[in-house]
Design brief:
457 residues; alpha+beta; Beta Polymerase, domain 2; Poly(a)-polymerase, middle domain; 9-stranded mixed β-sheet; 14 helices
Length: 457
């Protein structure tokens, strides 16, 4: 009996210890449940009162990785237009506002490269204008169909030439009509095109169809023949020592690229497209105001071919808003003008974007300028934001396959582009926009392109 009591007494401490452990577990489980109800998602978090060595080491590494220098390296590495960065890199890039980074990149790009390029473009314009003017003077001896009288009256300058590339320009050659001649403008089925009906015009009698409409195709042929003879006479005069080319000009040639008359200077170093142009009289311009929704009447009709004609293409003349576009362009302001020049330079350096004419980029800039009419938002400090707005607007137009003419919204500037070209451009623009920080690589790819050009030379 004593032995059994002694054994049971010895088991009592063990049972009390087990009981205390069970009580402790129940209390801890209750505490965990209470804390989880309070919103603590990790019930074991209250046990870790002090950070471990591994936590401290991890924080030091994270602080070093998130330093300004390393973040800038990561940011620069994921701002390449030709490749997409990992999602983790873009999460880290959110520390910086990519619009501010893009603004800095664009302003640096403009100061270091675009401004220098503009000086060269101005020199090219001046040289091309002097050659065209000299050829037109010699054309007066050939015939009186194309005259420089209108050019002298309005005081045309080299700045009036329309820029298409840094070394390619467009010049409107005035078409001479009889002084007492009256012409009527008829709306065509094609948006942005009209027909001209002349009465009693002896100068262009051989270029009229049976209904009296002036053929734009025949006028282009007459201009090509006239300019070809003028260049021939100029070369003969230079060989005889009577005349000479402007300084910096060695050769001048004239030929056709499809329906476009091209004046080539120095074996293609400079190219000028010659377009027959007829100014619209003021008496008729008020009637032509109905063609535009911007209350700006067209100032000229030009003999440019229609890409998708629905009627007789021979007599179609395109409406041109040269005066209104010039006035609009002059009033752009510093930020818009700087952004346009950056876009023009990026477009010329990029093989895919170069498929988009410069006039389309100008129209998109005008559209975005009307949508965002706050002057504060068009400051040089917001250049990156507006750059992205223009890319989004371009992406929208490409998605709809319709880029409205600024003055004639019903006219589609993308009508001549096929589906493959539009799809390629759309993919290119999307790569510049998504992910958003990729847009900052504009200056990077331009620098790389410039380096490749230097290496190739």
């Amino acid at each position: 009996m004593c032995i059994e009591y002694q054994q049971s007494f010895c088991l009592l401490p063990f049972s009390f210890e087990m009981l205390s452990q069970n009580i402790r577990r129940e209390n801890s489980s209750v505490t965990i449940r209470k804390r989880s109800l309070d919103g603590n998602t990790d019930p074991r978090r209250h046990f870790r009162r002090f950070p471990s060595d591994s936590d401290l080491y991890r924080k030091v590494l994270h602080k070093k990785a998130m330093s300004h220098t390393n973040l800038h390296k990561r940011f620069a590495s994921c701002t390449q237009l030709n490749k997409s960065a990992s999602p983790g890199d873009h999460q880290n890039c959110k520390v910086f506002k990519y619009e501010e980074k893009l603004t800095s990149e664009l302003n640096t790009f403009y100061s270091n490269q675009v401004r220098t390029k503009r000086d060269r473009v101005k020199q090219n314009k001046a040289l091309a204008f002097s050659v065209v003017f000299k050829v037109l003077i010699n054309a007066q001896v050939i015939g009186d169909r194309f005259t420089i009288g209108d050019i002298l009256r309005r005081g045309a300058r080299c700045g009036d030439m329309v820029e298409k590339e840094s070394n390619r320009f467009e010049f409107g050659v005035p078409v001479y009509l009889d002084e007492n001649d009256n012409f009527f403008i008829h709306r065509a089925e094609e948006d942005g095109f009209v027909r001209l009906q002349l009465e009693g015009c002896e100068t262009w009698e051989d270029c009229l169809d049976p209904d009296g409409f002036l053929s734009a195709s025949l006028v282009r042929s007459k201009l090509h023949l006239t300019m070809k003879n003028a260049v021939k006479n100029l070369n003969n005069s230079i060989e005889q020592g009577i005349d000479e080319f402007p300084s910096g000009v060695a050769t001048v040639e004239i030929f056709c690229e499809g329906s476009t008359i091209v004046l080539q200077i120095n074996d293609g170093v400079l190219v000028v497209e010659l377009i027959p142009t007829i100014p619209i009289p003021k008496s008729t311009s008020e009637w032509c105001r109905r063609f535009s929704v911007k209350s700006e009447p067209p100032s000229h009709v030009v003999a440019k071919p229609c890409q998708l004609p629905m009627s007789d293409p021979e007599t179609l003349w395109e409406l041109a808003f040269l005066t209104a576009e010039k006035r609009k362009f002059i009033s752009l302001g510093t930020a818009k003008y700087r952004l346009f020049l950056c876009l023009a330079e990026i477009r010329e350096r990029d093989k895919t974007l170069s498929e988009l004419p410069l006039s389309h980029i100008q129209a998109i800039l005008f559209h975005v300028g009307d949508q965002i009419n706050d002057r504060v938002k068009w400051s040089t400090e917001k250049l990156g934001n507006r750059f992205l707005d223009i890319l989004r607007c371009l992406e929208k137009f490409l998605e709809n396959k319709h880029c409205p003419h600024y003055f004639i919204p019903s006219a589609n500037l993308f009508s001549y582009m096929n589906a493959v070209a539009i799809s390629t451009l759309k993919d290119r623009v999307r790569r510049m926009l998504k992910p958003s920080c990729v847009a900052c690589g504009v200056a990077t790819i331009c620098n790389n392109t410039e380096k490749r050009k230097i290496l190739q030379t």
